[in-house]
Amino acid sequence: MALDSKIPKGPIADKWTNYKNKINLVNPANKRNIDVIVVGTGLAGGSAAATLAELGYNVKAFCFQDSPRRAHSIAAQGGINAAKNYQGDGDSTYRLFYDTVKGGDYRSREANVYRLAEVSANIIDQCVAQGVPFAREYGGLLDNRSFGGVLVSRTFYAAGQTGQQLLLGAYSAMNRQIGRGKIKMYNRHEMLDVVIVDGKARGIITRNLITGEIERHSAHAVVLGTGGYGNVFFLSTNAMGSNVTAAWKAHKRGSYFANPCFTQIHPTCIPVSGDHQSKLTLMSESLRNDGRIWVPKNIEDVKAIREGRLKPTEIAEENRDYYLERRYPAFGNLVPRDVASRAAKERCDAGYGVNATGEAVYLDFASAIERYGKEQATVRHLDVNDKALVKKLGQEVVKNKYGNLFQMYEKIVDQDPYNTPMMIYPAVHYTMGGLWVDYNLMTTVPGLYAIGEANFSDHGANRLGASALMQGLADGYFVLPYTIGDYLSDDIRTGPISTDSKEFEEAEKNVRDLLNRLLNNKGKHSVDYFHKKLGKIMWNKVGMARNVKGLTEAIQEIKALRAEFWKEVMVPGTNEEFNEELAKATRVADYLELGELFAKDALHREESCGGHFREDAVEESGEQKGEAKRDDENFAYVAAWEYKGEPSDAVLHKEQLEFKDIELKQRSYK
Fold this sequence. Notes:
Distance between the termini: 42 Å
Pfam families: FAD_binding_2, Succ_DH_flav_C
CATH architecture of the largest domain: 3-Layer(bba) Sandwich
Subcellular location: Cell membrane
Mean pLDDT: 96
Shape: globular
GO cellular component, one term: plasma membrane
Strand content: 5-15%
Number of domains: 3
Number of helices: 18
Keywords: Cell membrane, Coiled coil, Electron transport, FAD, Flavoprotein, Membrane, Oxidoreductase, Transport
Coiled coil: 497-524
């Protein structure tokens, strides 16, 4: 099957407008005869469900949480990008487009990224109209801050809880449609299969997580807004319930899975503290606006800190290595996430990590507190030489910008970040890979769409900070509602889709067989036992740095672990009850397949790009020595994998990436 991305012809700035002018539409009177299933109610799924219902479609929305408000989008902290140029610092649609393609290390599709930049400004207007409380400047205008990988301020934010506020906006829009009867909401339902009828996605099979009931649901199209697969590493910044099951079931039904090895390691997370942990906590990238990242220059100081004989505040300025500012003077602490993460790993691997495990660096706000304090003292005509006053005023400014993040850090680490530097270390965060979609956001299965983090389309090999919320809402509010209409225009005479068919019967039987197999396995190890083992393989051999030996070993070890899982996993209880272990078991079973494909994809891509860093693909000399080295001649493509049974049998399909509007060149943030 040839991969047809369906990119419209013409100049890139006109593609989306011309496309919308020519697509087929569904008459408002016909929309009420068409059903759409939306799985996932985070920013992508929630905004899509609300908008499709507002247009007149009958929407069935599913989430495995007790409420759409619990979607993991709520955890996003720092902000959302939009090319509005409110700061007058040179931003534009083209610059956001350029920064996103460059930040993704030239492994994203130009047309999709330009469209994303184009509609970004509409998102802010939409959310302000919903009442999202974005931060504002003194005069009442919306405020902006900077994020990594850019030289402008384009990130709109609501303190350190932007995701929560945006999700509440989408949830309010959903609730209005639920009240009108246009959205039928299914909380605590998990999708366990996609139903294909005559080659088209026509429904899903779900499990009611409270009662265990297996249900059939039909529609004319199915939309997956089910997030990413970072929990394949066990420890990540994702909510513990976040999983790959919906996307993986779609993959097994014919949807190609693209670039699974493109996974983001976020540089500012609270370090691992022990084997007892089940997840990691993110510290927003927005902190890198004002926080300076450093480690001691002298190894003796490192040892003294680890042994408790020295405090970081006692180390003189000249004995600190602000390594990002040293290595990347143009961008400093605001280099992209993949660059900042590898730089932290390099310092810690060299022995300069500052916590007991040697896997932490400092994020220090002392300079920002002093700078803001002096500014405030000057504004108020107070003594700028009064150190105590300056510190107090500076801390007030920092508290207004990042207060809830500082509070969260103090509760978890039991240290006051206003008076001592935070300790941070990279951790698995966002996944740029996902289901392959064309320009319409449709997968390789007709009628099956993937939006937000569930698809691969916009971020290439590395996502810039504050772009996840942008993509989720762009897809849900402004892209999918147009593109899905073009497809559904052929269904206005189809009538309701019956669930009483052999296809639904077969899919339901597959789900029941899977659940019964897990419940009757009678092994001796818990689900978490296998998940933790998988996570260690992934982190150690498919993590921040990858090589042929480690990846080859990982593939064999994951295959063996999967075989052991099906022999030895123990799932207590029954299906006819609330059974979280059973729900976890189905998810980990999928991770044990995805993990192998992930490693296979990383092994085949013999280059370094973005979050995919191969130790055998680095610059050998010159200014960029030691930095990631792409191979544009051989790997400027999307790797889309077709399911053929075992992950080792997956077939590679390539979508060649064309760069007509941006020059293809090695990244430099120096």
